[in-house]
Amino acid sequence: xxxxxxxxxxxxxxxxxxxxxxxxxxxxxxxxxxxxxxxxxxxxxxxxxxxxxxxxxxxxxxxxxxxxxxxxxxxxxxxxxxxxxxxxxxxxxxxxxxxxxxxxxxxxxxxxxxxxxxxxxxxxxxxxxxxxxxxxxxxxxxxxxxxxxxxxxxxxxxxxxxxxxxxxxxxxxxxxxxxxxxxxxxxxxxxxxxxxxxxxxxxxxxxxxxxxxxxxxxxxxxxxxxxxxxxxxxxxxxxxxxxxxxxxxxxxxxxxxxxxxxxxxxxxxxxxxxxxxxxxxxxxxxxxxxxxxxxxxxxxxxxxxxxxxxxxxxxxxxxxxxxxxxxxxxxxxxxxxxxxxxxxxxxxx
Length: 349
Fold this sequence. Notes:
Blueprint: E1 3-9, H1 13-24, E2 32-37, H2 42-49, E3 59-64, H3 70-78, E4 85-87, E5 93-95, H4 99-109, E6 115-123, H5 138-157, H6 161-173, E7 185-187, E8 196-199, H7 200-206, H8 222-232, E9 236-247, H9 257-275, H10 281-284, H11 286-300, H12 304-325, H13 331-342
Parallel strand pairs: 1-2, 1-4, 2-3, 6-9
Antiparallel strand pairs: 4-8, 5-9, 6-8, 7-9
Helix pairs in contact: 1-2, 6-8, 9-11, 9-12, 9-13, 11-12, 12-13
């Protein structure tokens, strides 16, 4: 079984180089690697990456993008995919040597074609052969350590609508295929973009929703959105537990605090409105979930960035009411108008 890789990147030459070398070292290497580059200086990125990669063994395609919008970039890359599976990692995803092979095993075992996407498994440390691993802050490391326990607690305190909606789809689909054993392969409600692989047919049919990249270019919840739509259309998402992938978080903030807080809440509301019936249990959980997130942001508002996140989240919460009042026909326009009204964009120098 062959696969291609689509990586969307923006001004991260060193991280991209480190990730590509690990993809080249896979026990089941990719056929084609497509890089959709929205960087400010494409040639500067290529100057760092090109000397390190092996063009004799691997078919690379560089696709420049003038649009700094992660869902848009992913859709652009999908157009060039030739094989039946497409891996769509972030430019800072780090694959362990056998991770791709294990992910492909899940697709091979899916003889009924019920699986739309397979996720890798979050790794807490970088592969030993990685040439670059950004240092984690103590706070981030602690958050990763307690996240499984936090997830269990939050499932009772403030259930995530995305999780609930996926499980509602599972009930309608009947028993899982036998290879989903809860050990090596498990059904998963969502998958983060840095872990994501899809059947190419699914990716080309559903496409990523580039409306979610209108506010802040890297998206935010665009990976959850396509995962929920895959399941709404009757297919499953599977996590390959023995396919570790490390998220080599770039050290700088991905967005200004206000914009991050605004889009976390507003994008979540948009996905709920665009994907879920308003009568569904999942949709009705959004208000409680959003209020819980606001409480967490209040607790974390101990510096200027945290205060800006809280300020943005509050505006996002108010904006969610306008999204809820929109019709399916006007939802995209309402979301864009809210971004135009509230997103704090940098003015040209």
